[in-house]
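[job 0412] stage=fold_complex status=start
inputs:
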Amino acid sequence: MSTTSSKVFIVDDDDAVRNSLRLLFKTVDIDAVTFESGDAFLHEHDADWQGCIVLDIRMPGTSGLEVQKILSERGNTLPIIFITGHGDVPMAVEAMQLGAFDFVQKPFRDQELVDRVSQAMTLNQEAQESVTHKREVHECYQELTPREKEVMHCVVKGQANKVIAMDLDVSQRTVEIHRARVMEKMKARSLADLVRKAMLLDTEDQ
Amino acid sequence: MSIIPGETDDSVQLEPLFDAMVESMIVIDDSGIIERVNKATQAMFGYEDKELIGQNIKMLMPGSEQARHDNYLDRYHKTGNRRIIGMGREVQALRKDGSHFPANIAVGEIRTTGETRYVGLVSDLTDQRESEELALRRREEMVNVSRLSTMGEMAAAMAHELNQPLTAIANYAAASIRLLDKDPAHTDDVKEALQEIYDQAHRAGEVIRRTRNFTKTTEATRGETTLAEVVRPIRSLAELDTKANNIRLSWGIPADLPRINVDSVQIQQVILNLIRNAVDAMHDTDPEHRSISVSAKMTAPHQMRLEVCDHGHGVNGDRSGDIFNAFFTTKKTGMGMGLAICRTIVRSHGGELGFRKNDQRLGGGCGSTFFFTIPT
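[job 0412] stage=fold_complex status=done
writing structure:
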């Protein structure tokens, strides 16, 4: 499900926990990159990374929660799964309120963590795809002439060619030509597809 | 009548007074023969009047006291040295049924017409002893409870420290199962994982071993040792707590300090308690300044002093007089017994527990230093 560039980024100060997690993910064919501190992770962190972060909530130096806050300021889109210990529930709640994907309590069942990580990676991939898709639609839209844009807006409102021709004070034939150009430039397979793409543009405009 | 047999006196009222006394009153002559006893004596020792009168006072003493009694009388006759006269003394007394009881005895001398008599006032200390022993037991129980409560407060740190190896063990085991499922011949990776599991199990055992000694309920026992020896077993325990709270802990306890005679477990309890308080005081201290130092030195020829210095919120000036009181606490959780028990322990060792506000120049939250002294 995950693309080749999708990885799990593990941040934990405990050598044994970190290494055992790496081995665990290896057995389920998920690429893992490990960091021994929040600072080390933040130093390497790249906005283009895909996958998810497994973050120990309690670490010396920059804590898990602080890493989450800093990442959020950087506009991070990677889902974060926190690893929490006994008595860390209040911290876990705070993390969830700040938008964490989930948290697991130590010691956790391997399947539980693997499932959460898979879900988080899927979510991230879908989000990535949706971002890419939106960008593509937007790029297509920018290719339209002002007149084509007008026609497109009327078409997605469900207006018939005749009505559009009257509104824009052009011939019905001209509307048909514009309409065909819009479908082509927007790479729309059908009217329904065009409507969907127009909605993506709308939400972006709002 | 008079309390002296054969003497007449105007104050006839003395007889009921004599018998109304709660304490036993015994009049003997100068050779130790009992001449008179009051009613309390009969109740206390279980004899009738007539069984006592004319007998030697030694019948009310167990063997060990008899010899001493002879000594005293002898010495007094010869030297006039008052070993017992006029002074209260604790002795063992013997009842008719052969049982012993602790008693306080005060002896007065009565000289009349050339004769010397002695009057002994005996009070039974059984109840007092029992309540003293009870109080002592209660105090020891409290000290034990307080030690457990300190451990309770440290439980989060301990759970964290145990969770690390347990998590690693679970991960390695899960990975091994998955590896073998894929390929039963995959033994190299599995062997490596098993080695890790073995190491981590021992790491978990180590955490438990550190705490086990400290939580044992113990009877107070003193012994000669050094402060460095006392502190050694609790260093890792304290570090567990400070590490979990992101605090640097430094130790400065010279190995060559003079020897001390202390109950190690109790002194460890005081030190851990002071460190625990220092940890709690630094919740709001910014991470850079979170540090605790524990140090010891000689402050007088026969006085050693241990200090626990933090950079926390300090002691509120208004409350500083209360902090050693039982049930006084500024913490949301906690019984408020910690410092009260610490003070009891330190005082029972002949030392004093105190604190001071740190010098402003130390930077950060200036914090407090708690210290106690121990005689060497």
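[job 0412] summary: The radius of gyration of chain B is 33 Å.
[job 0412] exit 0
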